[in-house]
Amino acid sequence: MKKSLRYLMIGLLGCSSPGLFNASADLEVSAAVHIRAPAEFYEPLSPHGVWVELGHYGRCWRPARLAVSWRPYCYGHWVWTDCGWYWASDEPWAWACYHYGSWVDHPDYGWVWVPGIEWAPAWVTWRVGGGYCGWAPLAPRGVIVAAPAFVFIDAHRFQEPLSPSVVIVNNTHVIDKTKEVVGLKREARNLDSSGSQKVMINEGPGLDVIQKTTDKKIEAVPIREATRQTPVPDATAKARVSGGTERPSVALPLRPPGPNTDIGRPAGRPQKDRGEGKGGGHGKDR
């Protein structure tokens, strides 16, 4: 019971949310893409999942054809840029769901994405210590980021290609060795010849920590170059999808109870204590 309360406090202390950043950053990552409304995500994401109305979360998107072990920010790799740590992934919807909005592990529907219109190199919160580095998707406003939402990697492997089979999931021994670090902030940066602009920065564990742990010199990649590793669909890039397009909501089948069904519950609802575990393989589609 005491351990559960301690992990709940971890979540409350770490519940920074994209909703806290109300003004849109000025950065247009691609000259062809600038999101002005959540409706602009409906068309490009529909081929890769389904949209559903989820109570106070509103219209959310759930990716399709995923392994049971799948979770956000686990297929890809971290790139150090002039905007901090950028999450690069070849998942076909990565351009949207890792750089806008937030994620919540719904007790009935699994991981769902809640749209947002402000861009960031990665919407995650961090825990570092004891030779480990971990991160968890930032949740919508009012939802805690509890300890089981974090995945960890040995710090010396931080920049390796990642998948659920190599990350550590919900291991209390690792969690106890780490502490939260501030990652996201908005700063003025000179990213090109247009001059200073306000952008979201995600420094997470910091460059010095990773360089010392990996014993490698890491050069910053210009953010506009890094984003090419997460391609935007041609139709979206060319058409700059117009806002206001309505897509019908889809009723999703409930998922059976699983080991992560408490992650992402609204703040104030109790969370059961979890045992130790490690990320698995691809598993079956859910």
Written description of the protein model:
The protein is α+β, with helices and mostly antiparallel strands. It has one domain. The chain has seven helices and 13 strands. The protein has helices spanning 2-13, 42-45, 94-97, 172-177, 207-214, 223-226, 234-239, and strands spanning 49-53, 59-63, 77-81, 84-88, 102-106, 110-114, 124-129, 132-137, 151-154, 168-169, 179-181, 184-190, 196-202. Strands 10-9-8-7-11 form a five-stranded antiparallel sheet. The chain has a two-stranded antiparallel ribbon with strand order 1-2. The protein is globular.
Rg is 18 Å
| Broad shape | globular
Q: Bin the helical content.
A: 10-25%
Any idea how many domains? 1
> What kind of sheet is the major sheet?
5 strands, antiparallel
Average pLDDT number: 76
pLDDT < 50 stretches:
1-26, 238-286
Beta-strand portion reads 15-25%
Class derived from helix and strand content: alpha+beta
SS elements, strand count: 13
What spatial order of strands do you see in the largest sheet? 10-9-8-7-11
Number of helices: 7
Give the SSE string.
HHEEEEHEEEEEEHEEEHHH
Q: Compute the separation of the termini in Å.
A: 32 Å
Short account of what is shown:
The chain has helices at residues 2-13, 42-45, 94-97, 172-177, 207-214, 223-226, 234-239; strands at residues 49-53, 59-63, 77-81, 84-88, 102-106, 110-114, 124-129, 132-137, 151-154, 168-169, 179-181, 184-190, 196-202. It is of the alpha+beta class and 286 residues long.
